Amino acid sequence: MAMASDSMTTICSHCEKGIPTINIQLHDAHCSRNLKKCSICGEIVPIKLADEHFQESHAPIDCSLCSETIEREGWSIHQDEKCPKRIATCEFCEFPLPASDLLEHQEVCGNRTELCHNCNKYIRLRQLITHEFYCQAHSNGVTESSGSGNESVVDSEGIRRRQINNSDGSVRRNEENEPGEEAGRRRRTRGSSKRRIMYTIAFAGFAMLIGSFFLSRRG
What we know:
This protein is of the alpha+beta class and 219 residues long. The protein has helices at residues 24-34, 50-57, 75-82, 99-109, 125-177, 181-218; strands at residues 3-4, 9-11, 18-20, 35-37, 44-46, 61-62, 69-70, 87-89, 96-98, 113-115, 122-124. Strands 1-2-3 form a three-stranded antiparallel β-sheet, with no helix packed on it. It has a two-stranded antiparallel ribbon with strand order 4-5. β8 (87-89) and β9 (96-98) form a beta hairpin. It is rod-shaped, with a radius of gyration of 57 Å.
C-alpha cells in the first residue's frame, strides 16, 4: 500500500522511497513481490537474497575454537578479547598458547630469573623491566653524583690552591713592601741592641777601673 506524499510523488510502503505518483501502482506491485525490508537493520534487500543477507549480516556465529555461539555484532570482540581458546603470547618468553592457559603459564614463567647487567644481580622476569629502569636511573644518578663530587673536590682543591697562592702572593707582596717602614723598624731595633751592648761593656770596664783603683790604695 502506497503512502501519499505530494501531488507529484508518493512514498512506497515497502522501500520507503519517493515514487512518481503516476507510476506508484506499478512500482508497488513490483516492490511487494521482489523486495523486503530487513527487520534487524532496516535495509531493503531482494526477497530471494533475504536469507543470505541474514546469514552474512545478522546470524550468530559458532566459534570454531571454543564452540560457543556468538552474536555477530560481538564476534570481533570475542575473537580478539573473550574467546578462552584464542592464541595469546606470554609477555616473558613470547611463547604462543591458549588464553585460558596464559595466567598459569605466566605465573611460573615470570618467576624465572635473569641477570641484570647494571647491578649483576638475578632478578625475576616479572620485575625485570621495572628493575632495569630504576637500576639504570640509579646507576646514572650515582655516576653523575660521583662526577659532581670529583668536580667539587677539584674545585675545592683549586680554590684552596688559589687561596694558598693568594696567601703566598700576599706574603711576597708584604716582603716586597718591607724595605719601607718594616725594614726601617728592624734596622732601628738592631741599632738599639748594639748600643745597649756597647753601654754594658763600657759600664763594666768603668766598674773594673774603679775597683782596681780602690784595691791599689788599700795595698
